[in-house]
Amino acid sequence: xxxxxxxxxxxxxxxxxxxxxxxxxxxxxxxxxxxxxxxxxxxxxxxxxxxxxxxxxxxxxxxxxxxxxxxxxxxxxxxxxxxxxxxxxxxxxxxxxxxxxxxxxxxxxxxxxxxxxxxxxxxxxxxxxxxxxxxxxxxxxxxxxxxxxxxxxxxxxxxxxxx
Length: 163
Hints:
Layout: H1 21-37, E1 58-59, E2 65-66, E3 73-77, E4 81-86, E5 91-94, H2 102-115, E6 121-126, H3 132-143, E7 156-161
Helix pairs in contact: 2-3
């Protein structure tokens, strides 16, 4: 009995080239479509300035720096409400209906701004567990009034922690 070779072993395979051109065309179309329809995120930035140590002081007798702290507004946010210090003169704004009274804070800051028109900086103090939402609302209330025409109050805000 003779051995007959199989046809499978002798079949010739044609090597085909992988054509990537249609896939590259599709990616170019998809990328251009996505770039034209994308909504670019607009971020809002709030400038925060830190108070400078030793600013406003000259040299006194004995070579030591005589530091006179500048008159600056401080707004402390507490569980009971807002406490204004510095040029705020120890004013207290209690909570209204269990919530912080941002409109009264803005009104008091407007009165202070009328007394000190050249002042632009304020130190905003918060306890460590204060929510971010409240921090932003206090910053907004201290920067400008809500009613038209808007008036700038204390736009240069420094953040700190109530001890």
